[in-house]
Design brief:
heterodimer; A: alpha/beta; D-Maltodextrin-Binding Protein, domain 2; eleven-stranded mixed sheet; B: mainly alpha; MetI-like fold; two-stranded antiparallel sheet; 15 helices; flat; transmembrane helix (chain B); MetI-like_sf (chain B); cell membrane (chain B)
């Protein structure tokens, strides 16, 4: 009875919806593309000759990843510049990798770290990115194409982006050591993490990780509670204090994991840690509310504390005697396997747009770096470039990406220039071979 | 529907139960079965399942001291939360049911109890942080009045803070069923008890509590299963200072160790089912509610 009427009416309704949506979107499109597309039907070009405006207008790319890397303002700008729709969706690190692996079709562009691209490659949920379709590939810094910069070898403790970036064929499941024709992911943003502290309360300059575990900061210290990287921060501390020398902090043996966790438990039992934190905001709150005066921290979080008028310094932990150094991380974009045809072409346009400079300029204003600084530079004022990349005293007031004043003239970026910072990275975010064991031990620390 | 065959009762029974079956099978039974199956498989370390039968996940789980520590910690929070939410919930419900004479007013006040629940759990939890922190309202007030010299650190990022947040979030789950049970109590029973010379405390102990057992049992099931199945409040309010059963297997999922996480989930389901059964054994909720 009602089945008979429900059958044909359902598709009819969706047809109406589709037309309505199309019309709506058309009104949003940039005038040129829209009118040309509607009038001529085909042949209109928005400046990207490979894709017809008529064909792209209904494309939607879902870019999924962590909040500090997949940013709504960047997606909005991309939609504006490209003529198709980009939707940004945020998840935390572990929810993100789980979604990429278990629901790959619900994502178009996966925002991955090096270690996640290794997992995604192994699981066969992503397809290779063809190097020759990436316009700026030759301008990408040699950190990513040679594993070095200015003759300085980028360390490979943990999983460096260079190590996880290449595969031999589009559908390979094993990584390729060194540049090939195919990439697993295209780096888009990266930085070097260290310690943040309150200079007014700590009382002296901090340049070594061991300060974080110094008994004089008992009850006033915090550490990052994301096991995979928290343990590396702890390892940097213990190595700095001369308690242990790791073979590879980014891939510890069971014995090294045991040593590290036992030390952490000892510290916890002595009341050393006021708290641990998992999100950017928590770390800002801990510092701003006076709960802690020293903790492992991310550079924009330090800036966020300073914006509140509270002094906070990002410790320059330059490598010395094989110890110290920053923990590096890098996020990039991977193409999910199901992308094909026009949508795949649109995805390539999107990837190329990322390296064309606007995004590089945007992330620079909160202290993150672009893999192609040469294009980012064209979107930064000379003052901004000097401050963020050159590490020079700010010649003028420096604003954050949303236009809020952030640094006064004369202020200098903690840790110095881009080169000084990246050449002092000593390990990278990772997933250890013994990650299951490490996780269990980390929970021992949590519950102790 | 108009057929009058002898099997009619049987068929209409199936028909009546079918909507529930249609919801429960795909959204409850199937996921549980999948989790159960996964808990007997091996992980390849990259989120893949190797299809060989193994008991290693359970072996590892049951032989680990960590499991015991996690359960002790979680049960501790569940017990404390249960205790405080029961005490507060019982007396709030008691006040509403017996001391507010005007029924309209009682219902109005009862609805007032739910007002804080119009905002999200997370907001209600997080709003404790500026209150309890080292430089929070309570510490600042105490220091300014000269009662303490140093801020009280146990207020935030501690077991105390976790219990405060849980009690604040979950007391309503006690109030509602207990209030509901109390509202059904025949007032003449209380009058008879008082007339017979029973003290107010004894009326409470010997009449009201036994007659609200079903409400207490229902509230307890809600509170205990929510606390034991939660990890977020523990994580935030303890400042990451302690862990929980669910938090621990969430970390396993974070590194794609699905079988280990599945085994933990199955174990938790069994433990919780046992707890709920235990509560239900002491009170026949179905009979009490049907009254």
């Amino acid at each position: 009875m009602s089945k008979d009427t429900a059958g044909p009416s359902a598709p009819a309704r969706s047809d109406v919806a589709a037309t309505g949506e199309g019309l709506n979107r058309r009104t949003f499109l940039k005038a040129g593309a829209a009118t040309a597309g509607a009038a001529a039907g085909a042949g209109a070009i928005t400046g990207f000759p490979t894709i017809w405006a008529q064909e792209i207008k209904d494309i939607e790319l879902r870019h999924v990843g962590v909040s500090y890397s997949v940013v709504k303002a960047i997606g909005d700008q991309a939609s504006k510049d490209l003529g198709f729709k980009v939707t940004m969706q945020n998840l935390d690190t572990s929810a993100a990798i789980n979604r990429f692996v278990t629901q790959p079709n619900s994502v178009d562009i996966a925002d991955v770290e090096g270690w996640q691209s290794k997992v995604a490659t192994r699981r066969g949920v992503i397809q290779g990115i063809e190097v020759k379709k990436i316009k700026e590939f030759d301008n990408i810094l040699p950190i990513f194409t040679k594993g070095e910069i200015n003759g300085h070898k980028i360390p490979r403790q943990g999983i460096s982006p260079y190590e996880a970036m290449y595969i031999a064929k589009s559908d390979a499941t094993e990584l390729n050591d060194g540049v090939s024709d195919w990439m697993t992911f295209l780096p888009q943003v990266y930085n070097a993490d260290s310690i943040g502290y309150r200079p007014d309360l700590v009382g002296h300059e901090v340049t070594e990780w061991k300060e974080l575990i110094d008994p004089k900061f008992k009850g006033k210290a915090a550490i990052l509670d994301v096991p995979a990287i928290g343990i590396m921060d702890a390892a940097l501390c213990f190595e700095s204090a001369g308690l242990i020398k790791y073979g590879n902090k980014g891939n510890m043996t069971k014995a090294e994991i045991d040593f590290t966790i036992d030390k952490l438990i000892e510290l916890k039992k002595s009341g050393h840690f006021r708290a641990t934190w998992t999100t950017f905001d928590q770390s800002v709150q801990l510092m701003a509310a006076g709960e802690v005066i020293i903790q492992s921290m991310w550079s924009p979080a330090v800036a966020a504390v300073r914006v509140k008028g509270i002094p906070c310094v990002y410790a320059p932990v330059n490598i010395k005697d094989g110890k110290e150094g920053y923990r590096g991380w890098c996020n990039g974009m991977a193409l999910m396997k199901h992308l094909s045809g026009k949508k795949l072409e649109a995805a390539y346009e999107y990837l190329n747009w990322y390296l064309s400079g606007w995004q590089g300029g945007f992330v620079a204003r909160y202290g993150y770096y672009s893999p192609v600084p040469s294009t980012a530079k064209t979107f930064l004022t000379p003052a901004e470039w000097d401050f963020w990349y050159e590490g020079k005293p700010a010649p003028a007031v420096i604003n954050d990406p949303y236009g809020v004043p952030m640094e006064q003239p004369g202020a200098k970026r903690d840790g110095g220039s881009f080169l000084e910072r990246v050449t002092n990275i000593s390990c990278w975010n990772t997933l250890m071979d013994e990650s299951a064991y490490m996780n269990k031990r980390w929970n021992d620390f949590k519950v102790a | 529907m108009t057929s009058s065959s002898p099997s009619r009762g049987k068929w209409s029974g199936w028909l009546l139960v079918s909507p529930l079956v249609l919801v429960l099978v795909p959204f409850f039974v199937l996921p549980i079965v999948i989790v159960l199956v996964a808990s007997f498989l091996e992980s390849d370390g990259f989120g893949g399942l190797i299809r060989t039968f193994t008991l290693a996940n359970y072996g590892g789980l049951l032989s680990s001291k960590l499991t015991l520590a996690l359960y002790l910690e979680t049960v501790k929070f569940a017990a404390l939360t249960w205790f405080f939410s029961l005490i507060i919930g019982f007396f709030v419900a008691y006040f509403l049911a017996f001391h507010v004479r005007n029924q309209l007013l009682a219902i109005g006040l009862f609805l007032l109890c739910t007002v804080p629940f119009w905002t999200s759990n997370i907001i209600r939890m997080i709003s404790w942080i500026p209150l309890l922190g080292k430089e929070g309202l309570i510490n600042t007030a105490l220091i300014k009045t000269g009662l303490i010299g140093q801020p009280l650190e146990f207020l935030l990022f501690s077991g105390f803070a976790v219990v405060v947040a849980y009690v604040h979030q979950l007391t309503i789950f006690m109030i509602v069923p207990i209030f509901n049970s109390m509202a059904r109590i025949d007032r003449r029973l209380l009058e008879a008890a008082v007339d017979a010379g029973t003290s107010r405390f004894d009326v409470l102990r010997l009449v009201v509590v036994p007659l609200t057992k079903s409400g207490i049992a229902l509230g307890s099931i809600f509170v205990i299963s929510i606390v034991m199945g939660d990890f977020f409040v523990v994580k935030v309010m303890s400042g990451g200072g302690t862990a929980s059963v669910v938090g621990a297997f969430y970390e396993d999922i974070g590194v794609l160790q699905y079988p280990a996480a599945a085994a933990s989930a199955v174990l938790l389901t069994l433990v919780l089912s046992a707890l709920v059964l235990l509560i239900l054994r002491s009170v026949d909720i179905r009979r009490e509610i049907a009254q």
